[in-house]
Amino acid sequence: MRAQFVLQEIWIGLRRNLTMTVSLVITVAIAMALLGTGLLVKLQVDSSKSYWHDRIEVSVFLCNKTSTNPSCNKTDATDQQKAEIKRDLEGSPVVAQVTYESKEQAFERFKETFSSNPGLLQGTKVGDIPDSFRVRLSDPERVDEITKLLANRAGVDQVVNEKEILDRFFKILNGLQWAAIMIAAIQVIAAVLLVANTVRLSAFNRRRETGIMRLVGASNLYIQLPFILEGAIAGLIGGLFAAILLVGSKIVLIDQLQESLEFTSRLSWTSVTGVIVFSICVGVLLCAVASFLSLRRYLRI
Amino acid sequence: MIHFDNVTKVYRNQNRPALQHVNVSIEKGEFLFLVGPSGSGKSTFLRLILKEERPTQGRVHVAGKDLSRLSNWRVPHLRRRIGCVFQDFRLLPNKNVFENVAFALEVIGKPRRFIAKVVPEVIDLVGLEGKAHRMPHELSGGEQQRVAIARAFVNRPMILLADEPTGNIDPATSIGIMKVLDRINRTGTTVVMATHDAAIVDAFRKRVVELEGGRVVRDQSRGVYGQAY
């Protein structure tokens, strides 16, 4: 096997149908970039999920004068009610930790969180956020037991589960991720068809050469390798463009997402590199296999 | 060297067989003319030797091997021992004479030093001394056919198949081509040549196998083109 001969054949093939090669490179680049973006979003969601899983709290808001819950009767929860609720919560097997947060503490925390938003602060005063118990669960999936425990309890306004809010948010991210992967799948189909066509055209252009090669007894590998590598190289170039797009999407999409949504876990460049390498490998393999299969019908013994 | 054992070939979607019950034995070093009108099965005969087609019935043996038992991945090795020449030369127009001949060795992975040594020898053998760097379109038909013969012979095959090699060439030039084939035959290579050219067959007086409608109607040593009455 002479490398120079094979490389020369590849170069001729890629140059001869340049437009097909370019469209193939673009298709592969977009397909792989979308696939990679889908994977990046998935990685982000998974790591955020496990981060939040440990920190999810159930807030038990207690009655105060502005409560809309009729069982509160527009009065504050009494100290005795509070003590009973605290005792029951601490006695529950699913509860890991209970902290009491008074309305003053809640207001302080609110001021801190929204310090950059003076309009919101002006319209808020102490007491708008009622006294509450912050309950950390040993298993966030078993929140129902807390709800059941405190149902119709005197002094309890409402039980808010943070997990429900987060779940809704993760659902959106999941949707985003699947949308990216679905579009990637469609692009992959287009890429496969394009590879098949490009290689077929290439084989047709060089039917004189391949005919002679067959006749003088060149092995199938020798005849097919330039075509397969031609597809693989187009796949590789597409994969490299996809890598650039992926770095862009990490900076523009994921990092922006992290900042605006205050994700505490950042996606590391290591995992981004992993995704890029994976996408390039998929691109190259995809093109090589597609060329091989389309050649089997064309260059028969 | 080549044995056809009761070979019948029927192409798909055709009722009439291209070859019917053909029995022919060709020994090592023989020169054989395959004659007959168009459609008599000459090309099919050659294609069966190359395993480009499989017989519908019967067996073909080439170089001691039963082709029906030869697995597909071994077929390239069979073809390395058979050279082929065609009526339409089949040269690569963007390669010069040397490169065209060298191509046959390059694609079977021969080292460059070997190619540099062997190719000029063969170019001389077919009578194209000093024309190694000409492009095919700069050569006459006869010279182009010599290049094709050089390419077929450069790997020193045991068998040379020629399908109407003089079909596109004027009679005077054809004699030159025949001399080259004769020279190759004298090196011990078996030559099978399908042809319409009565003058050449009559002049050379070699073994003649005549096909008609897919049947062997004559097998004559030192024969002529037409039936000798």
Tell me what the structure shows.
The complex is a heterodimer of chains A (301) and B (229). Chain A has 301 residues and is an alpha+beta fold. Chain A has two domains: 3-52 and 167-298, no CATH class; 55-162, Alpha-Beta Plaits (2-Layer Sandwich). Helices cover 71% and strands 8% of the residues of chain A. Chain A starts with a helix and ends with a helix. The model of chain A has no long low-confidence stretch (mean pLDDT 81). Chain B has a six-stranded mixed beta sheet, sandwiched between helices. In chain B, helix 3 runs parallel beside helix 5, helix 4 (112-125) packs across helix 5 and helix 5 runs parallel beside helix 6. At the A-B interface, helix 8 and helix 9 of A face helix 2, strand 6 and helix 3 of B.
Would you spell out the secondary-structure blueprint of this structure?
The complex is a heterodimer of chains A (301) and B (229).
Chain A: H1 3-16, H2 18-55, E1 57-62, H3 79-91, E2 95-101, H4 103-113, H5 118-122, E3 132-137, H6 143-150, E4 156-161, H7 162-205, H8 207-215, H9 220-261, H10 269-298
Antiparallel strand pairs in A: 1-3, 1-4, 2-3
Helix pairs in contact in A: 1-9, 2-7, 2-9, 2-10, 7-9, 7-10, 9-10
Chain B: E1 2-9, E2 19-26, E3 31-35, H1 42-49, E4 57-62, E5 65-66, H2 75-80, E6 82-86, H3 97-106, H4 112-125, H5 141-153, E7 159-163, H6 171-186, E8 190-195, H7 198-204, E9 207-212, E10 215-220
Parallel strand pairs in B: 3-8, 3-9, 6-7, 7-8
Antiparallel strand pairs in B: 1-2, 1-4, 4-5, 9-10
What's the gyration radius of chain A in Å? 31 Å
Q: What is the helix/strand order of chain A?
A: HHEHEHHEHEHHHH
Percentage of residues in DSSP E strands of chain A: 5-15%
Total beta-strand segments of chain A? 4
Structural class computed from helices and strand pairing of chain B: alpha/beta
